[in-house]
Design brief:
mainly alpha; 2 helices
Length: about 60
């Protein structure tokens, strides 16, 4: 017979893991300085401008 598990504990453990993953994603997204956010935005704008400039007209 298989191992008996407590479903309440398993559910709470899964919730803790999900919360930790969400917290890690939020730290990565919101835990940056204003200069880091501005640099990333400038890099994205430069990349988008280069991509738009390389489009071929039909």
């Amino acid at each position: 017979m298989g191992e008996v598990i407590n479903l309440r504990r398993a559910r709470k453990a899964k919730a803790r893991v999900d919360a930790a993953n969400t917290a890690a994603a939020n730290r990565a997204a919101f835990g940056r300085t204003k200069a880091e956010r501005a640099a990333e935005q400038a890099e994205k704008a430069r990349h988008d401008k280069a991509l738009d400039g390389a489009k071929l007209d039909d």
